[in-house]
Design a protein that fits this description.
This protein has one helix and nine strands; from the N terminus they run βββββββββα. Strand 8 and strand 9 form a beta hairpin. Helix content is 4%, strand content 28%.
Amino acid sequence: MRVLLIHGLGICEHCGSLFTAWDIKGADWSCPACGRRITNTSFGYKQGENIKKVKWVGKEGRWITEKPQTNFDLVINSERCQVITKLDKTFGPRNQMSCFRR
């Protein structure tokens, strides 16, 4: 099961397919399903003078307007994934490197 951060989930602004930031190949931002160019809108950001996150992918795989507070499972491209809504204090570069310390 893949573990994904909620901020890396998107819904294509053109075809409505669910995808992750890791599904996008290369520098050309195109939808993995329809191939059309996507923008920050597909990740739930409102375009304008100040770009702001206004939508998140919810448990049902659809847009919701409040960020989920608990982790949940979601099927993306027939693969079951666990979506993490926030990182705890033990996750990060400093603590990841601790396994290399003696």
